[in-house]
Amino acid sequence: MTDRHHLLVHGGTFAAVGDGGDISGVRGGSSPDGLFVRDARHLSRWQLTVDGAVPEALSPVADGDTARCVLVPRGGRQEPSAYAIFREQAVGDSSFVELLRVTSNRPVPVTVRLALTVDADFTDQFELRSDHRTYAKTGAVRSRQVVEDGVEFTYQRGEWRSRTTVTADPAPDAVEETGTGARRLVWALDLEPHDTAELTLRVIARPHGERRALRVPRSPDAVNEQLLSMEGRFVEGVAFPTGWPELAAACARGLADLAALQVPATGPDGEELRVPAAGAPWFLTLLGRDALLTSLFALPYHPQLAAATLPALAATQATGTKTGSVAQPGKIVHEVRHGELAHFGQVPYGRYYGSVDATPLFLVLLGAYVEQTGDTGLARRLEPHARAAVGWMLDHGGLTSRGYLVYRADQGGLANQNWKDSPGAICSADGTRPTGPVMAAGAQGYAYDALRRTAWLARTVWDDKTYAALLEQAAGDLRDRFQRDFWMPDRSFPALALDGDGRPLDALASDAGHLLWSGLLDKEYGEVVGRRLLEPDFFSGWGVRTLAAGQPAYHPLSYHRGSVWPHDNALITLGLARYGLHDEARTVAHALVDAATATGHRLPEVLAGYGRDTHAEPVPYPHACVRESRSAAAPLALLTAVGGA
Question: What pLDDT sits at residue 109?
Fold first, then answer.
């Protein structure tokens, strides 16, 4: 993460703190600090001073589930620090807990004056993005109230109401105003020679609509125990490769991150579920495509993810047409948001359906889940939802009328609605963007696999052979059309997409590897594509680039036009193995594992596209999510594809 922020994640709550454990509330930078719950910042300042000065970090916060650092007063070699502050912080469910231990280094009594400046601005995450947008908040009121052992911050705008309560044990000697809206909690600690005093600070965030009785963990150690228990449940029963310890470490790290990234959701019958969030800091919420791919990667090892993700997405499946959210009957949701701006319709993402591929991936996961587990009960329960999803693909999605799944740029939301959803990600080799409807290659592969898997469910579980035959015919026709319309004979490679007039966008892109994963290409074409992805312009040494180098559109620091995405490479590796290209699959797998090993066994959301031949370490992408569920599950996909080789 840039700006030296350290991320603590627990379900739908995360905190980003600096090297010394502080939160500054500064809005600039690629990722703001603070305590965030349900898309809102519930702590915007958390700044410690000792005797009126900011201490320096003798031992700064390191990566981990608990933020630990050692602070001392600023001084020189001739004047050793009079005391040290040992700071531990952790995040719980809608909560934050900190333990401060102040230890005197003096042989005489000393009084230490400790102050903590706190504030909660309740800013929506969409306001903190670096996109220069502003949002009106007419009638919004912030208030502060001193409570018995701390202070409470409240935000209200119409029916929207949020609170943050900060308490301390022992209670502060005073709560002071600062002139900025923040409040300063102060203590005078009398320490005997070489004595230690402890303070425990607890924060409860109550976002709008929260009705649970929330409890703050008693200490950072208690949070650690919870997280270790969660991680243990995820790792339990997974057979890690003994002959490849680096892959084993990446799998273990990924499963631990998946345990922390579980967020609450609701099923079709109101049942409470826990599903994988897309990633922190920006996407700690349910995103259809991300949750589906994460669950697919983890399916052979942790099928419970799929068992929760499928009903959660069925519960949010669109039943009607709504222009602002791009909803259409049968469509699977792209993104679910709970923040203030979504609540008031100032951003369209409360339930946003701007995805052309979440719907076929829903069907792919349902079929794969039943095949993997034999649990036909879920397929029977979700049969209406699956049929509605197929209906969307055939009707609103465009398979019947256009022959392919089609999307159009959404003026209020996403310009592109496949996995490469940034502006300009879908383009020709020279960078020219399409106009009008777009038919992205990867989505057609997902549709093909979805039709085949749903046909299998119809034949073996739903006992509807007529429907199965219809879907099998549709899948076969799609495959024939695709190889006729998308294949570029002069380049021996499929187009990235077709524009509204059916013209190919000729950029050489990694999406072709997704066609191997879905099985859309004939064996001859698939082998040609698979080997082409391992040539130097595509393969950076850390993975396959999203766009082959040498094309005018290529940029190694572009989000989708030259970077290296672990989940993209995981799909490519599975596809290479499917087409019998096992040496190539192992090459990509080893590259990704080497990248993970260089970054503490954790794969980030995305890496820069610079080559390993000129950069001995993977170059980070500056705005990447540090913890991202698809990347966390990617090592499991590598294990499936190549085993422990």
Answer: 94
Question: Structure tokens of 303?
Answer: 């099928």
pLDDT tens digits, 487-530:
999 999 999 999 999 999 999 999 999 999 999 999 999 999 99
Beta strand 6-10 with 34-37: parallel, antiparallel or unpaired?
A: unpaired
DSSP code, position 391: H
- Indicate the burial class of 524 (C-beta count within 10 angstroms; 0-12, 13-18, 19 or more): exposed
CA 620 → CA 52, 449, 604, 629, distances in Å? 37, 33, 8, 17
pLDDT digit string, tens, across residues 215-229 = 888 899 998 898 889
- Rg of the chain taking only CA atoms, in angstroms: 26
Q: How far apart are the first and last CA of the chain?
A: 31
80 preceded by cis ω (within 30°)?
no
For tokens 């740029």, what's the residue?
409
What is the distance between the alpha carbons of residues 88 and 251, in angstroms, rounded to a whole number? Answer: 27
Between CA 306 and CA 32 the distance in angstroms is 32
Structure tokens at 333: 């949701």
pTM over 0.90: yes
299 near 366, Cβ under 8 Å?
no
How many CB atoms are closer than 10 A to CB 422?
13
Cα(189)–Cα(504) distance, rounded to whole angstroms? 71
Q: Degrees (nearest 5) of the Cα angle 43, 121, 119?
A: 50
DSSP 431-448: -PPP-S-BEEHHHHHHHH
CA distance linking residue 38 with residue 11, whole number of Å: 10
Integer Cα distance of 500 and 12 in angstroms: 40
Give the residue ranges of DSSP H helices in 335-382: 340-343, 358-373, 376-381
Q: d(Cα 439, Cα 298) in Å, to the nearest integer? A: 29
On the question of pLDDT at 2 being above 50, the answer is no
The tokens for 359 are 């719907």
Kindly tell me the sign of the dihedral angle through the C-alpha atoms of 163, 168, 169, 173: negative
How many residues would you count in the chain?
A: 645
Concatenating the DSSP letter of every residue in 222-239 gives HHHHHHHHHHHHHHTT--
Closest CA to 341 of 166, 164, 129, 181: 129
3-class SS at 473? helix
Omega cis (within 30) before 494: no
DSSP 139-150: T-EEEEEEETTE
CA-CA distance, 345 to 73, in Å (whole number)?
48
- Give the C-alpha separation, 412 to 460, whole Å: 42
Sequential DSSP letters for 46-64? EEEEETTBPPEEEE---SS
Separation of alpha carbons 238 and 301, rounded Å: 6
What is the pLDDT, as a whole number, of residue 389? 98
User: What residue type is assigned to position 565 of the chain?
Assistant: W
**The tokens of 32 are what?**
């703001």
Q: Which of 203, 85, 68, 87 is nearest to 147 (CA)?
A: 203
Q: Which residues contact 625 (CB under 8 A, 6 or more apart)?
A: 278, 279, 280, 281, 282, 283, 604, 605
